[in-house]
């Protein structure tokens, strides 16, 4: 590597040649000497890009501390650390690898070379690296619904404070696209979608846009919510955008007996149930209806899982209910694990996926289930029985499936 000449500058400032607007990762190493008698506080620091922000991780021998800063502050943050807490700097963008070292005499040796390897592809297809070209919905597109919702400004830019919502929308569409490609939904098929607890319908409008305008598929979507004013507002918006086959109705998930879309389940249709942040047992009613109606795909992001927390009485593991926060999280995780297993028992291949990064929202798990023919998974049924026995659970979804006689005979 060809070294640049030594640069006599006041530390800890790095020259402009050591930065670019495309830097996606920075590593600081070689901790600075600590004052006599004091241990070294940090062993290493790492900054990773997340859209127009960086997450800084500061490592000690036993812990790691996280903080966030905007990309425009990168030079300032590095300037406060290099030569003070660390002596070496490495950074990468899509073209170059940058290196700098603070000498014992307080001078900086710098170098820059062509990057020998590009960042891994997955780093640019998730919310961790906000690369516009890989988003399904791209910044600058003319999508009136996103402008009216405040996600986009009038000139198509992402509005201040709405990048997380923009990433969340794209992440959901990516997860939806994974299971609804041309092999799953051939040209000419009709897509039917019920969105339970649609709320303000950020995603409902974008899902309709995706299937109708981008995939060019005939699509019928019905959004259901208990709030009459929300339904009225969403109905007016659908009319404004010319979304003829997007309808909204007022109703309770628990009281919906038949699919609210005519032609649901008929030949040459592909049927999907989605539900985002339906509170507590409303998610169970959503999953029950989806199973009963033999939906081809189910997407549910649960919220506020209170039911099993209130029932939780461990027989052999009292430690899991002794501490409030632990009890709450164990109850939430076991709630979704039981739901996924029950879907498996009812003929679905179920997955529990991280929807968005935990830093954006704690409600970050999505249950995705794809209907298949076989439904004799006795192993997962045994797991359900054991966990129910251990914690004295009576899950609503299991009760609904039994009362509705939707469980296969072997269970």
What features would you describe in this structure?
This protein is 29% helix and 25% strand. By secondary structure, the chain is α/β, with parallel strands linked by helices.
Describe the secondary structure blueprint for this structure.
Elements: E1 25-31, E2 44-50, E3 53-59, E4 64-70, H1 74-81, E5 86-92, E6 96-102, E7 108-114, H2 144-148, H3 163-178, E8 190-196, H4 202-214, E9 218-225, H5 228-241, E10 246-250, E11 269-279, H6 282-292, E12 297-303, H7 307-311, H8 319-322, H9 324-345, E13 348-354, E14 365-371, H10 378-391, H11 396-403
Parallel strand pairs: 8-9, 8-11, 9-10, 11-12
Antiparallel strand pairs: 1-2, 1-5, 2-3, 3-4, 5-6, 6-7, 12-14, 13-14
Helix pairs in contact: 6-11, 9-10
Shape: globular
**Helix/strand/pairing category:** alpha/beta
Query: Helix content range of the residues, please?
Result: 25-40%
> What fraction strand?
15-25%
Any idea what the radius of gyration is?
26 Å
| Poorly predicted residue ranges | 1-12, 118-133, 357-362
The rounded distance between the terminal residues' Cα atoms is 67 Å
Task: Walk across the major sheet and give the strand order.
Answer: 4-3-2-1-5-6-7
- With helices defined by DSSP (H or I, 4 residues minimum), what is the helix count? 11
Biggest beta sheet attributes:
7 strands, antiparallel
Order of helices and strands: EEEEHEEEHHEHEHEEHEHHHEEHH
| Average pLDDT metric | 84
